[in-house]
Design goal:
The chain is an all-alpha fold. The chain has one domain. Helix content is about 45%, strand content about 0%. The chain is built from 12 helices and 3 strands, in the order H-H-E-E-E-H-H-H-H-H-H-H-H-H-H. Strands 1-2-3 form a 3-stranded antiparallel sheet, with helices on one face. A hairpin with a 2-residue loop joins strand 1 and strand 2. It is globular, with a radius of gyration of 23 Å. It starts with 9 loop residues before the first helix and ends with a helix.
Length: about 325
């Protein structure tokens, strides 16, 4: 069994996109939840009426069984992973290549300044999209039975001794980090500028901006609002009063309930009370058809925004291709 890290709640893992996403309320009269095209105007930023989605499959069988379906441009797997239309534009391999090249350039810049780039300032991987459970709430029954509302974590790597000269000193900070007030670029910013030019925005960043817009539309969609209402009513029957599926992971009175806070930690580890709530949560999502509804509606809005922003996405793809080619050359030269 994987070790549990210092009990990091899901809302910490999902801070990137959640600031722009407003979860719909719980008014069960908000509108239809069937696959028929609704006539309610779509949220601002997307045109026309709420997009149609395939008919929803009624919840049946054991509610503890995982959601497993594909349709309408959405795929949801038993482990809670999900694929939506915008994912076709994200290449984790490309992002890692870009980050590796930026590391090479930053290291060269620091050496020119007579300094060493500390290991702590060298990212290992490129950015990755937030996991579906961060955006839609927990959905993997196996995971919540171990982690509750915490981020599933890999085995921690053994701590390695710090090499001499590897400290992040004030001189290192001044040389490496940008100064937004003065507009001065540090080695980090110079590396981004050298690789990306005057517009260092990556395809990943473009996709995340569009994903934020579609998520906002998704959680305002009448069918998702109705599914949230059903989920909330189901939770209330078991004694849990939450307005939406993201709320339990923010409830510090629930996280670790009944267990003491370990020395040096900010929260107790997942407790039986927290795990019981998370298990009920996943079962209620299945009963309310929340995951299926949210995935299908998200996919519909993503298809719509891909059509609207096709020129922007294609240009970002071309820019990304050139940037990756340059990054590969930099990595090879710096090896």
């Amino acid at each position: 069994m994987r070790a549990i890290r210092e009990s990091r709640p899901l809302w910490v893992a999902g801070a990137v996109l959640m600031a722009v996403v407003s979860v719909g309320g719980c008014d069960s009269s908000s509108g239809p939840d069937s696959g028929d095209a609704a006539k309610k105007p779509a949220p601002a930023g997307l045109s026309g009426t709420e997009p149609s989605i395939p008919p929803l499959v009624p919840a049946a069988g054991d509610p503890s069984e995982p959601v497993d379906f594909q349709g309408g441009g959405a795929t949801v797997r038993p482990d809670g992973s999900m694929t939506l239309p915008l994912d076709a534009y994200v290449s984790v391999k490309d992002e890692r290549t870009i980050v590796r090249a930026e590391n090479v350039l930053a290291q060269q810049c620091m050496r020119d300044a007579g300094l060493k780039l500390p290991r702590a300032l060298v990212p290992d991987d490129g950015p990755e999209p937030p996991a579906p459970y961060v955006l839609y709430g927990v959905m993997d029954m196996k995971a919540v039975k171990v982690y509750g509302y915490r981020e599933p974590s890999p085995e921690p790597k053994p701590a390695s001794g710090r090499a001499a000269g590897d400290e992040v000193t004030p001189a290192v900070q001044r040389a490496y980090f940008d100064d937004p007030k003065s507009g001065r670029l540090g080695c980090e910013g110079k590396a981004r500028r050298k690789l990306g030019g005057k517009n260092p925005q990556t395809l990943f960043m473009v996709v995340q901006q569009l994903r934020s817009q579609t998520l906002s539309a998704t959680f305002q969609d009448s069918r998702v609002v109705a599914a949230v209402s059903r989920w909330s009513a189901c939770m209330k029957k078991s004694g849990y009063d939450y307005a939406n599926p993201l709320a339990p992971a923010h409830d510090r009175s629930l996280l670790g309930r009944g267990l003491p806070v370990p020395k040096g930690a900010t929260l107790p580890p997942p407790s039986p009370a927290e795990i019981a709530a998370a298990v009920t949560d996943v079962e209620c999502k299945r009963t309310a058809r929340y995951v299926q509804t949210a995935a299908l509606v998200s996919a519909a809005y993503e298809r719509e925004i891909i059509q609207q922003r096709s020129k922007q996405l294609q240009e970002a793809r071309r820019t990304q291709k050139r940037k990756v080619e340059s990054a590969e050359k930099i990595i090879k030269a710096g090896a």
